[in-house]
């Protein structure tokens, strides 16, 4: 059986590629498990600093493999929402506090949108199409319940209610996508962005990502308390000593991630 996920590491940058091009990288049980394994591998590897998620062939990810779902239905296998979600999360895959970049090529529909959404930064090819198509097939997009935290509610409702894909440029205009580039420059742009992140202090990125996501639902007092605790942890690290020291000595900084 061919791998549904390809995992490649180039120095400190990991490239995670969904590899079911014949099915537009639709999410079946194999791909979901291998994506989970890939994210956990990346999260646990201290030598991996930034990961790029992309798709093989002409699509990023077309969403849930509905042929597999139809076969399950025909076999009398009752689908449950709890099968698709963690006990305390609406995410399809485990969370990592390390940076994730989506390099969106072709279609990113339904679960494909969810995979792009789980990433922190999104670079899209000019011809990419993105949408939340579940209502077309009497399904729900649980991940979209989080979207009003990041883009306007009216845009979320239009995406879900109409199930119509939007262009990469439109995704940029509503704030979902960070950059739009010609298709032949997509991976170069994603790699350049990842390389820029690798230059930054790894603990600063991880801790700020945690602060930003956890802080969305906190009041100011709760956010201040969390921030103080996290900042105290950072200031006790070797990197927090190395950064100012390298600046004072006018030399290249040497991050250790600890």
TrEMBL record:
<dbReference type="InterPro" id="IPR014748">
    <property type="entry name" value="Enoyl-CoA_hydra_C"/>
</dbReference>
<dbReference type="Pfam" id="PF00378">
    <property type="entry name" value="ECH_1"/>
</dbReference>
<dbReference type="InterPro" id="IPR029045">
    <property type="entry name" value="ClpP/crotonase-like_dom_sf"/>
</dbReference>
<dbReference type="GO" id="GO:0003824">
    <property type="term" value="F:catalytic activity"/>
</dbReference>
<protein>
    <recommendedName>
        <fullName>Enoyl-CoA hydratase</fullName>
    </recommendedName>
</protein>
<dbReference type="InterPro" id="IPR001753">
    <property type="entry name" value="Enoyl-CoA_hydra/iso"/>
</dbReference>
<comment type="similarity">
    <text>Belongs to the enoyl-CoA hydratase/isomerase family.</text>
</comment>
